[in-house]
């Protein structure tokens, strides 16, 4: 079990794999590459803030979701200013609680040509995205479907951001839809879809 102070002053030139709630315990180290957040969930009352890691340099550090991850009702996932995030191919973040993405350096999703896989973020709770570019890793658009899906009863606020995934799916039953000052010029062929 990782405890505060167990890892300090280190340089990690390799991928680190960690449970979500152990990520803050890595903060007292010099530099990182990928920090893979193991599949699982945040439970009600838990908050995880993904800030850039590294007290010498944060240049190559990014957070990776290599498998599915759930933010349960009553939990919060914050992507802080300057953080970089990657969702691996065909993986999904399920937000039943709250997710905030604020001024992230990058927020990418892999989009390969592998049998029309789907991946992205499904929101049943609330998501706020501001001053962030949601892009495909490497800028490529494979035959997968990358999406942000906002379901009935959910809340979405997107401001001053760039959206370059395949689909933004908005259910008309969403309790709040606030979208302003964004660039949707690189949305995929399936575009913005309102339903319900």
Please describe what this structure looks like.
This protein has 196 residues and is an all-beta fold. 0% of the residues lie in helices and 43% in strands. It contains no helices and 20 strands. The strands form 3 sheets. The chain has a 7-stranded parallel beta sheet with strand order 1-2-5-8-11-14-17, with no helix packed on it. Strands 3-6-9-12-15-18-20 form a 7-stranded parallel beta sheet, with no helix packed on it. The protein is globular. The mean pLDDT is 93.
Q: Roughly what percent helix?
A: under 10%
Strand coverage percent: 35-45%
The DSSP helix count reads 0
* Weakly predicted, low-confidence segments: none
Structural class: mainly beta
How large, in whole angstroms, is the Cα Rg?
16 Å
Strand and helix order: EEEEEEEEEEEEEEEEEEEE
Residue-averaged pLDDT: 93
Strands in their spatial order, largest beta sheet: 1-2-5-8-11-14-17
How many angstroms does the end-to-end distance come to? 47 Å
The overall strand count is: 20
Described by the principal axes of the CA atoms, the overall outline is globular
Biggest pleated sheet = 7 strands, parallel
């Amino acid at each position: 079990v990782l405890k505060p102070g167990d890892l300090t002053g280190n340089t990690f030139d390799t991928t680190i794999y960690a449970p979500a709630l152990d990520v803050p315990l890595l903060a007292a180290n010099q530099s990182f590459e990928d920090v893979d957040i193991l599949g699982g969930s945040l439970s009600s009352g838990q908050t995880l803030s993904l800030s850039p890691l590294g007290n010498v340099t944060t240049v190559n550090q990014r957070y990776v979701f290599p498998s599915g991850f759930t933010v349960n009702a009553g939990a919060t996932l914050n992507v802080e200013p300057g953080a970089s995030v990657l969702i691996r191919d065909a993986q999904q973040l399920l937000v039943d609680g709250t997710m905030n993405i604020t001024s992230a350096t990058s927020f990418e999703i892999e989009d390969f040509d592998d049998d029309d896989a789907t991946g992205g973020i499904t929101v049943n709770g609330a998501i706020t995205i501001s001053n962030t570019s949601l892009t495909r890793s490497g800028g490529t658009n494979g035959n997968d479907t990358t999406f942000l899906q906002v379901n009935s009863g959910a809340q979405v606020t997107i401001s001053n951001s760039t959206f370059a995934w395949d689909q933004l799916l908005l259910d008309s039953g969403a309790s709040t839809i606030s979208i302003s000052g964004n660039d949707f010029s690189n949305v995929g062929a399936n575009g913005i879809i309102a339903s319900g």
